[in-house]
Fold:
Amino acid sequence: MTIILKLTLTRPGRKFTNRMSIEYSAIPIRAFLHLVKSSLGTGILAVPRAFKSAGLLVGLFGNILIGILCTHTVYILVETSEKVCAKGKIPSLGYADTAEEVFKQGPKAVRKWSGCVRTFVEIALVSTYYLGVAVYMVFISLSLTKLFSFYYPEAASWDRYQLKLVIMVLLMVLCQIREIKHMVPYSFIANVMLAVAFGITGYYIFSGLGEVEVHMSNGFSGIPSFFSTVLFAMEGIGTIMPVENSMPEPQFLGTCGVLNSAMVVIVFFFTSIGFLGYFRYGELTEVTIMKNLPDDKIAAQIAQGAIGISVFFSFMLQFYIPTDIMWKRLRSKIPEQKHNVSQIWLRIIMVAVVTAIAIAGGEDLGSLIDLVGAIFFSSLGFLVPAVLDIIANVEEGWGRCHWKLLKNLFIIFLALFALVSGSYYAILDMLK
Structure:
C-alpha cells in the first residue's frame, strides 16, 4: 500500500490541508462507491412501506424532494467545514469538530456554546447508530423467523425474544473485533448476501406489477411516517466528512463532483424500489418488502436467509461507530492496565442493551424506524447543517434579501416538523 504525503495550499473557499492520504481511499471513484454503499443498505427495503404511507404520487415527488434536500444539507455542511478550516488553518475536521469550530469562530454570543454543540452532535451520532443497530436486531429476527416458521410452525413465536437472545450471544463475540480492517471479510459477505436478496426481491416485484390497487395520496397523516422512513433509509451524513477528508483534491463538491454523482444514483434507486414495491403490493406492502415474498418458494427463502445474514454481518460495522465514540470518552477515566477488560465489558453491555431495546420494540419495526429517523436523522441531516450555515455566514452576509437565511430557516422548519410529528405518530403506533 503506497502512502502519499500531499500538501494543498490554502485558497479562498477551500479547505487548508496538509495531511497524509492513503492513495486507494482518495480516488474519486472509491469515494463515490463508499457514499453509495453507505446509503444503499437494508433501509431501502422499508421505502415501499413509506410510499404506502404517503401514496404513490406523493411518495414519488416526496422522495425526490428529500433526496435534493439531503444533498443540499450535506453540501452546506462540507462547504462550512472547508470555510472554518481555511479560516483557522486546520487540516481537516469531522462532523462534531466542524460544529464546535463554527461556534468558536462565530459571533461572541454563540462561542460559549461550542462545547455543548460538539457534545450534542456526538450524542446524536451515538444514538443514531446505536438505535440503528437495534433496528438491525429486529430486522434479523424478523427475516429468520419468517424463514424458519415455514418448516417449523412453532418458530413463529421465536421473534418475541428467544431468537434475539441467541443472536445477542453471537454478536457479543463478533463485536469484540476492534479494528475496521479485520471486519473486511464480514463486510464482503454482507455485500454479497445483500446483492442476492436485492436481485431476488427485484424479480418478485417485476413479476406482478399492476395487479393490485394503489392510492395516489393517503392524506397528511401518512407524511410524517414517510418523511421519517426515507430519512432513516437514505441519510448517511455520519460518513460524509471522513470520505471528504480522505480526498486530496477538491473533487467532492461541484456539479459533477462525487457528492452529486452519488446522490443521483442513491435517489434513483430509492425512488425506483419505493415506487415499484408499493405499485406491486399496494396496501398489502409490509414494513419491509422482504415480508411480502412468498413463504413456500425456494428463491424467496434464499432471499430471507441472505438478508438475515447480510444484516447480521453488517451489525458490527454499524456498532463500531457508537462504541468508538463511547470508548474515547471513557478511556481517560480508566487505568491503562484495565483498558482491555473494560473494552470487552463495554461491548458486551452495549450489545445487551441493544437487544433489550429490540425486544421492547417487539415486531413493530416500522415504528422503531420512524422514531430513529424522526429524532436523530432529522437533527443530524437537516437541523445542525442549517444552523451551522447560518452562523458561518454571519460576517459575509446571507445574500440578497437574506435568501440563505430564509432557505436555512425553511430547512430548520422541516427538521422540527419531522422531529415532532414523526416522533408523535411513531410513539402513538408503538402504544397501539
About this structure: The longest strand covers residues 3-8. Residues 1-26 have pLDDT under 50 and may be disordered.
